[in-house]
Amino acid sequence: MAIVRGGLAGILLILLSIPLWGQLFPCRWVAQEGTTTSDYVMDVSIGPDGVFAAGMTGVSGSGWNGWLSKYTLDGDFLWRIHYDEAQSDQAKRVSALPDGGCIVSGFVVLTDSDIWLERRAGDGARLWRHTLVKEGSRDAAFAQTYGGGDTFVLAGTDFVQHWSLAGTLLWSLSLPGMTFLGAAMTTAGAGIWVVGDQGDLVGLTAQGEIIWWQRLTDEGKEILWRDIALGPQETFFLGGLASDATGTSTALVWHYQPAAGIIWRAKWRGWGSAAVNRVRLSADEIILVGAYQAIFRLQTFLRILDMNGNLKGERIYTAEGNIYPFGADYQLGRTAVGGFFEQRTVLDTWELTAYGTKDGFLAVWPLPVKN
Questions:
Q1: I need a surface site. Which of 6, 195, 255, 317 has the fewest CB within 10 A?
Q2: Strands 261-268 and 274-281
Q3: pTM of the model
Q4: What is the rounded CA–CA span in Å between residue 56 and residue 84?
Q5: Are 327 and 362 in contact (CB under 8 A)?
Q6: Which residues lie across from 73 on neighbouring strands?
Q7: Distance from CA of residue 38 to its chain's centroid?
Q8: Going edge to edge, which strands form the sheet with 261-268?
């Protein structure tokens, strides 16, 4: 494991000026994470003094090396940590903390897949680390969230866990047959909500007691929820996709209150399938990041709704191959998106060319949009 400091370290920073919705809409900066193999930015998180990106790079023998990078809010590269203690070591989720550090999680393949979890200080120093040995089918953490206070949530295949920032496991709940992809915490962790790949919405107390559990469908169609964000007055914004019998998916976002049901819903589809991967909120806008399945390729979309579900605008990004977003975050008037692209991608008049099969990207916009 190593920490790289200073310099660009193979990262290309580009300032963009993107015309969006009839006005100049400048992207603050873009970072390209690229090697001669495949690279992915799996998650991003904005903290008080910088932006974190977690991802992985392909290595020989069909394995992966994970990594964690930090940039300033203006896009200057600060440091990178490499995780290469096993043939396949992947960094999957990162959550920025108020002290400038972060919580990062992933999994490592030794004799089986084990989840690892650690806290890093703002300068990259490791404060603690835990390895969660596989139990049953639990082999990956797909959801991680920090909601303020001194605790955070980790969830994934068959489990939800509540941790203290000091690295103490407060409780672990086993829910067999469920895979959770998104999580949210109410202020200071008083309540925990998770969503899953079968349309499940589960609410828990801070002590791990289930207070709500419902498997939701959209007009009879199966739902795969990928994210959840807290709304006003004990409501939620849920994002994901609904699938029909042909396997075609429709991007889906609900404004939902457990006691009352759907307040409003929005759904749309491009030339093929579509999905919402991340839902983030500003004071008065809903920021949706996801993907369209166009003809022979994936495209990334950045869509803005008002709080009543009305479309304020959308930007679609395309490449000669695929461009796909895995993670997104909104804080401090900035929206960060991370994912991968193939071959050559054009962001307005600027071009990025992949060094290998796939390259990771991290882009930051000055959202929300103010008319």
A1: 6
A2: unpaired
A3: 0.90
A4: 10
A5: no
A6: none
A7: 19
A8: 217-218, 221-230, 236-243, 249-257, 261-268
